[in-house]
C-alpha cells in the first residue's frame, strides 16, 4: 500500500468539514517557500549569518580556485587547493545545516497536522457522548 492510497482512505473517512480543513493544510509548500520559512523562524539571525557565511566561503573558494590555476609553484598550489577545499567543505556543511532546518520544520508541520486531527477527533467524541 503506497502513501497515496493511505491518503485517499483517510480523506474518505473524514467528515466533510474535516475533509475541507484537511485539504487546506494537505498541500506541501514549494522548496522556495520552505527555504524562506527558515528565514522566518526563531533562528532567523543564525540563518542570516549562515547565508552570509556561505556567500563569503563561495567567494573565497572561487578566488582560491582561480589562484590555484594561476600558480606555477608547488607550495602555493597546495595552499590554494587547501583553501578552496576548506571553503567548499564549509559550504557543504552549512547547506546540510539548512536542509536539516527545512526538514525539522516539515516534521513540525506534520506533527501539528496530527495534533489538529486528534483535537478534531476528541471534539467529535465528546460531542457524541
Any chance you could write out the topology, listing elements then pairs?
Layout: H1 3-13, H2 16-26, H3 31-39, H4 44-70, H5 74-128
Helix pairs in contact: 3-5, 4-5
User: Average pLDDT across residues?
Assistant: 85
Report the β-strand fraction as a percent range.
under 5%
Question: Could you tell me the number of beta strands?
Answer: 0
Low-confidence blocks of residues: none
Q: Helicity level, as a percent range?
A: over 70%
Based on CA atoms alone, the radius of gyration comes out at: 24 Å
User: Which descriptor suits the 3D outline?
Assistant: rod-shaped
* Quaternary structure state of the chains depicted: single chain
Explain this structure to me?
- This protein has 129 residues and is an all-alpha fold.
- It has five helices and no strands.
- The radius of gyration is 24 Å and the shape is rod-shaped.
- The mean pLDDT is 85.
Question: How do you describe this structure in short?
Answer:
The chain is an all-alpha fold and 129 residues long. The chain is built from 5 helices and no strands.
Keywords:
single chain; mainly alpha; 129 residues; rod-shaped
Amino acid at each position: 500500500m503506497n502513501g497515496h492510497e493511505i491518503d485517499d482512505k483517510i480523506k474518505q473517512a473524514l467528515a466533510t468539514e474535516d475533509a475541507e480543513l484537511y485539504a487546506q493544510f494537505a498541500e506541501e509548500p514549494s522548496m522556495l517557500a520552505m527555504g524562506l520559512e527558515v528565514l522566518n523562524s526563531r533562528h532567523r539571525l543564525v540563518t542570516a549569518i549562515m547565508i552570509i557565511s556561505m556567500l563569503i566561503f563561495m567567494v573565497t573558494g572561487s578566488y582560491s580556485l582561480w589562484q590555484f590555476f594561476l600558480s606555477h609553484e608547488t607550495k602555493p598550489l597546495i595552499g590554494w587547493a587547501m583553501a578552496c577545499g576548506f571553503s567548499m567543505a564549509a559550504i557543504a556543511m552549512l547547506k546540510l545545516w539548512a536542509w536539516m532546518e527545512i526538514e525539522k520544520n516539515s516534521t513540525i508541520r506534520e506533527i501539528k497536522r496530527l495534533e489538529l486531527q486528534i483535537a478534531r477527533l476528541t471534539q467529535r467524541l465528546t460531542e457524541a457522548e
